[in-house]
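Can't paste images in this forum, so I'm doing it all in text. The chain is below; anyone willing to post the predicted structure tokens underneath?
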Amino acid sequence: QLRGKADCASDLYSLGATLLYLLTHRSPDELPQKRMKIDIRSCVEISPEFADWLEVILEPMWEDRFQSATAALNVLTNKSEMIYDVDFRVKGSRVTLKKTPSSLIVNIPPRGFRVQDFFSCLFNLFLVGWSGSYILSIMFYSASIERMLDFLPMHSIFLVVSIVVLGFCFSKIAYLLWCSARKSQIKISNNEFLIRWNFFIFNKEVKGKTVDIDKIAINNMEIEIQGKSIINCGLFDIRKAYQFGFLLEEVEQEWLIAEIQDFLEQLKFKESLKKTDKKLLD
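Text version of the structure:
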């Protein structure tokens, strides 16, 4: 409505605000907020499913709400599962995040091959060709042991430098390929979490129990590559820390950590309600 037109999403927001007022007897603008959203769970005790539903129709961005009354009603009456994308509105980001009340899926796509990566690869390939040709020329020239013993003292320094340059260039090219093609996925549900890394045909994944997750936070690995400190996202459970998202920008990492933390808090809240209900029934 602030944009000068009313649509179904704005009507649903009004419905949500009215329901929230009836539940709390307070205007929505007087209620506490968390990350620019009304913190419904802190001000009223309702079922987790209804809280999830209210959060969607009270999303600040109209495109994140239910787009029709039918869709909202179907979720409320359990005729369909509530699945919604969480958009990251920063130019250039390709990270996607999908949520349901019981699961969260994060996809971090490959960074892609950038222009500077192309020129860096060309330069390193040139050095590989130069170093390799020098080493091969020495091998062919000193075909016999006698000639090698005569030849090596004069060229030992250049040979060592060529081998070092060759190793450095190969590692640099491998690193650029790894950065441009590596992708990862994080899945968290009520019972377990899964982190999967893919690099061409190579795959690695780890699984664990969601209840064992201790925390998720920005993790400084105290490692520098090309003069830049490596900072990534870390999921810590009772056994170890699992790293992901080190190629993301800092603002992307902070957003991702906040979304996952929020989801884990919702799961804990639902679990605590279940335990409370069970005690009351007993």
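The two ends are 48 Å apart (CA to CA). The mean pLDDT is 77.
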